[in-house]
Amino acid sequence: MKIVEGRYYRTRDGRKVGPMEPDHNAIFLVWDCPNTGESFHKDGSYNGSGRESPDDLIAEWSDDPHTFTHSDGRTVDLTAITTPFGLLDEETQAALKEHGGPYEFFHGDACWLSVAGSPLWVGATTYRAKPAPKVETVTVERFYNRRSNQVINDRKPGAVLGTLTTTLQDGKPVKAVWEADQ
Fold first, then answer.
1. What pLDDT, in 10s, does the model give residues 88-127?
2. How far is CA 147 from CA 94, 100, 168, 182, in A?
């Protein structure tokens, strides 16, 4: 990962650190965060021992928890991954793991299924961060037939004109509201 002056980064434990400033006097720790007093190696590691630390910088900070900025400058949407886990580069693998879920995996029947608990991170399986549900509202004018207690398309004797507002989540109705003047 390339650290850039003035930018913010996410630590392995999820904290926002920055803005980063170069430390021109340091021999090993070349980046400082004046807000926290922490210093980092040029690769973003906190302790330089080669072991992972919760304080390591793992990605550029993004206000969208489903994306991260790759060291090559690309913004990667973790909800749009279509590549098997084992074929992802290490930086994308780490960002996906650090996302924290919920996750989905691609099933052989061309559908995404929720992962119960933590993924196994099998190299041949495609995982992604579960996208937020798509919510949409559909509003139509319809008639309500009092005799049959049904919403209908055509005017019948005794029918009342009103508005039917349906809230859909991932294409499935989750709420319907009927409003009429009478």
1. 999 999 999 988 889 999 998 789 999 988 899 999 999 9
2. 61, 53, 28, 15
β partners of residue 69: 60, 75
Please name the helix (run of DSSP H) or strand (run of DSSP E) that holds residue 167, with its range, or none.
strand 159-169
Q: pLDDT for 46-67, tens place per residue?
A: 876 677 888 888 877 877 778 8
List the structure tokens of 131.
């996208």
pTM passes above 0.70: no
Are 170 and 134 contacting, i.e. CB atoms less than 8 angstroms apart? yes
